[in-house]
């Protein structure tokens, strides 16, 4: 099982802070996961298509081409604005 | 090379953070940066909420501070970032660097802030007299990283 | 654009200087630099005496701070420099800058220190376990000015 | 009358913190004054010949070519080392 987290404006737009995805043994990229989530919901689709979205795997910023496997923690979020 | 990373809701005291940093007798320079909730030009700011990604924030700040310690000769480094709801003029973030020489202290302080602004998972939402808005990322913050690459 | 220039023997409190600087609600950034009497590599430092040119020091510091205020958008600027005899780890100098944006604060703080090191009439004499020595001016301090010219 | 001040290592080497010079209505440069002081004392001469010396007229840093007149305050000192 893959744990997926959403933060900030993305979390609000999706109305969802976290979800799970059964990878069924596959190794996908973060981008594959994003596309799969988008294909499951026409409501989510436009928000997940935002090209500014950042992605973290196991709490490290990575490009969307990064692979994810079962047990990973994947997070999507808008550009950060702390400090 | 001591490192102090704190992510918390409560306020922090610059005075005690500074006292901690100045203890290293080999360090002749202490540079501090403090970020504050500032008035808006467009509307009255009532408050600001800082959301974060628990766990990842601490890791990201540790990575940034460690990169600074590898790049410059530094003594103690402190990064404190608040989360939750903050009022105008409250403190948001503190970066403090002790170093033997001032140039390293200034550079490391600015490096840490530039990377924190682009890489640490915090998000600001402004509650204003005309509504609630997520703060947009600034192109100038991205541009600031170029200096270090 | 308030300016606070102090040349004095007594110690100063970074805490109250910082509190003064953060009062400006339009300023989201406060950068401070503090210089401390540091241990020597070669001999045990017993104390340091700072001589100055009374009158000219205040004028030189005011000129440097004013140049920084003309070059960057700044809020309050504070420069404090001690004179007389100081012990190891005592505070020597404080530079604090409030600004709307962090880049201006870091740049102005470093600019002020670089000019102070080259243009303000202070001289350090070290009293060590092996004798008394006037501190020699550093080539690196002269080189630091090039960045601003 | 011109008031002349010496600071730090230069003050110690000369054994003198301040002196006066009667300009007799002349306008001299700071360098002229330095040379005149040097010519008056073989003890002072080597210390005043230090090419690193800085000079201030009326409490502003100026080059040695700067003119001085009666009533001015002229100061000579080594490179500064504060901060």
TrEMBL record, chains A, D:
Task: Give any single GO term for biological process.
Answer: Mo-molybdopterin cofactor biosynthetic process
GO molecular function per UniProt:
nucleotide binding
Q: Keywords on this record?
A: Nucleotide-binding
Q: Which Pfam families match?
A: ThiS
List GO terms (cellular component aspect).
molybdopterin adenylyltransferase complex
Q: Which domain of life is it from?
A: Bacteria
For this chain, the family text in UniProt reads: Belongs to the MoaD family.
PANTHER family assigned? MOLYBDOPTERIN SYNTHASE SULFUR CARRIER SUBUNIT
Protein name in UniProt: Molybdopterin synthase sulfur carrier subunit
Organism of origin is Alishewanella aestuarii B11
Query: Source organism lineage?
Result: Bacteria, Pseudomonadati, Pseudomonadota, Gammaproteobacteria, Alteromonadales
From TrEMBL, chains B, C:
Q: Which UniProt keywords apply?
A: Molybdenum cofactor biosynthesis, Transferase
Q: In which pathway does it act?
A: Cofactor biosynthesis; molybdopterin biosynthesis
Class in the EC hierarchy, top level: transferase
An example GO BP is: Mo-molybdopterin cofactor biosynthetic process
Entry's Gene Ontology molecular function annotations: molybdopterin synthase activity
CDD domains to which the protein is assigned, alphabetical: MoaE (cd00756)
Any single Pfam family the record assigns to this protein: MoaE
InterPro entries given for it? MoaE_sf (IPR036563), Mopterin_biosynth_MoaE (IPR003448)
Q: What EC designation does it have? A: 2.8.1.12
The record lists the catalysed reaction(s) as: 2 [molybdopterin-synthase sulfur-carrier protein]-C-terminal-Gly-aminoethanethioate + cyclic pyranopterin phosphate + H2O = molybdopterin + 2 [molybdopterin-synthase sulfur-carrier protein]-C-terminal Gly-Gly + 2 H(+)
Its quaternary organisation is: Heterotetramer of 2 MoaD subunits and 2 MoaE subunits. Also stable as homodimer. The enzyme changes between these two forms during catalysis.
Protein family per UniProt: Belongs to the MoaE family.
Which NCBIfam families does the UniProt record give? PRK10678.1
Instruction: State what protein this is by name.
Output: Molybdopterin synthase catalytic subunit
This chain's source organism reads Alishewanella aestuarii B11
Source species taxonomy: Bacteria, Pseudomonadati, Pseudomonadota, Gammaproteobacteria, Alteromonadales
């Amino acid at each position: 099982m893959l744990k997926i987290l959403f933060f900030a404006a993305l979390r609000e737009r999706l109305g969802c802070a976290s979800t799970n995805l059964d990878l069924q043994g596959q190794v996908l990229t973060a981008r594959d996961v994003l596309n799969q989530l988008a294909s499951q919901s026409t409501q989510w689709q436009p928000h997940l298509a935002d090209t500014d979205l950042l992605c973290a795997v196991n709490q490290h910023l990575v490009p969307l081409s990064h692979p994810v496997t079962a047990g990973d923690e994947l997070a999507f979020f808008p550009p950060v604005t702390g400090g | 090379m001591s490192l102090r990373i704190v992510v918390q809701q409560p306020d922090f005291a610059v005075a005690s953070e500074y006292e901690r940093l100045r203890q290293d007798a080999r360090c002749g320079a202490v540079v501090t940066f403090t970020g504050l909730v500032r008035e808006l030009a467009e509307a009255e700011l009532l408050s600001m909420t800082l959301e974060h990604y628990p766990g990842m924030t601490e890791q990201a700040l540790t990575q940034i501070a460690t990169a600074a310690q590898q790049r410059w000769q530094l003594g103690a480094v402190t990064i404190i970032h608040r989360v939750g709801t903050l009022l105008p003029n409250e403190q948001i973030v503190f970066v403090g660097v002790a170093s033997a020489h001032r140039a390293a202290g200034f550079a490391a302080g600015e490096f840490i802030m530039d990377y924190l602004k682009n890489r640490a998972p915090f998000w600001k939402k402004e509650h204003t007299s005309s509504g609630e808005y997520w703060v947009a990322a600034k192109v100038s913050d991205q541009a600031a990283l170029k200096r270090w690459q």
